[in-house]
Amino acid sequence: MVLRVLEEFIEKEATEHRLKVGWMDALSHQAKGGEDIFLLCFESVPSTQVVAHRALELVSEGVDGIVLTELQTAGRGRSGRSWVGERGNFFCSFLVRCGVSLGELRGSSVVLGLVVVKVLEEFFKLSSDLLWLKWPNDLVDYGGRKLGGLLVEAEPRGDGTQMVIGVGINLVCAPRGVKGTTCLREVLGEEGEEVFIGEQVPALAWEMFEGFRKLLRDYSQGGIRRFLPQLREKIWGVGKTFTVELGERVVKGISQGISDDGSLYLVNEYGEPYYLTSGHVIDVS
Q1: Is 171 exposed, middle or buried (0-12, 13-18, 19+ CB in 10 A)?
Q2: Rounded to an integer, what distance in angstroms lies between the CA atom of residue 78 and that of residue 149?
Q3: If we measure between CA atoms, which residue out of 231, 232, 275, 233 comes closest to residue 253?
Q4: What is the pLDDT of residues 110-150, one digit of tens each?
Q5: How far is the first Cα of the chain from the last one, in angstroms, to the nearest whole number?
Q6: How far apart are CA 202 and CA 25, in angstroms?
Q7: Closest CA to 85 of 141, 140, 40, 43
Q8: Higher confidence at residue 81 or residue 53?
Q9: Backbone phi, then psi, for 238, in 5-degree steps?
Q10: Angle at Cα 70 formed by Cα 116 and Cα 197, nearest 5°?
């Protein structure tokens, strides 16, 4: 059993970081049914993504699981950028195996964002015009202020791919001093006073976990094209000018939305198209 291999790892983590036992019990209850699912919940940890990768080093066949924390002190985003984690927000890494090759998962970060949007809309009973996806991996409000994001890392395992999906969401507060950010409580205004889920955090994490697993099963059947209609309804910034850093190169163009292969489709001032599969957005106007 995969979990037996990881028992010693869990015990070691418990000596270094205090476990959130109530959350672990709640997730264990959700996971009943004999599935081999790795569950680990902390009161505080530097990075759920780092813990998830350390666990994967011990299981050659990969594993499905959840690493959840109440406070994250040294989170990381894409390209090693720091992720500020305030208490009361949501920090989780999801380990998901899928039967899709690594090459076929190009552009999957923004597609996986559909799960986050759907779960939040249903969990908090939000209207469909509040949450949007900004390429390549951000969750934003209508005005483009960042509410959270995804960090998707993947590696080949057997005939498929092992994914580690990090999700951070500003539920009750935005990072102090970080321009262009907000939180769900602020976006909702007076209704946002109800946004504090406390012991419901494991339920929110479990809904996302199940959503990611279902999406990746569907992805194996039809690829990214299966999700293009939903994605195009939820993508933010069409018609706006994006400036994107591609290593040492910078490109600028008006967003036409998402292309058929999941790329960001820009057109520059000379009418030349760009199809971007990755990059860092440094400005939107």
Answers
A1: buried
A2: 10
A3: 275
A4: 999 999 999 999 999 999 999 999 999 999 999 999 999 99
A5: 52
A6: 9
A7: 43
A8: 53
A9: -60, 130
A10: 60
Reading the block at residue 51, the tokens are 């813990």
Enumerate residues 6+ apart whose C-beta is below 8 A from 91.
48, 68, 69, 70, 71, 72, 75, 85, 167, 168
73, 18 in Cβ contact below 8 A?
no
The helix-helix angle for 201-222 and 108-124 (nearest 10°) equals 140
Residue 203 burial (C-beta neighbours within 10 Å; 0-12, 13-18, 19+): middle
Q: DSSP letter at 19?
A: B
**Are the beta carbons of 255 and 240 closer than 8 angstroms?**
yes
142 burial level (CB within 10 Å; 0-12, 13-18, 19+)? exposed
Instruction: Tell me 235's DSSP state.
Output: B
Angle between helices 48-56 and 2-16 in degrees, nearest 10: 140
Residue with tokens 């076929």, as numbered in its chain: 104
Domains observed in the chain = 2-232 (3.30.930.10), 237-284 (2.30.30.100)
Query: How does the average pLDDT of the chain come out, rounded?
Result: 89
**CA distance linking residue 95 with residue 157, whole number of Å:** 12
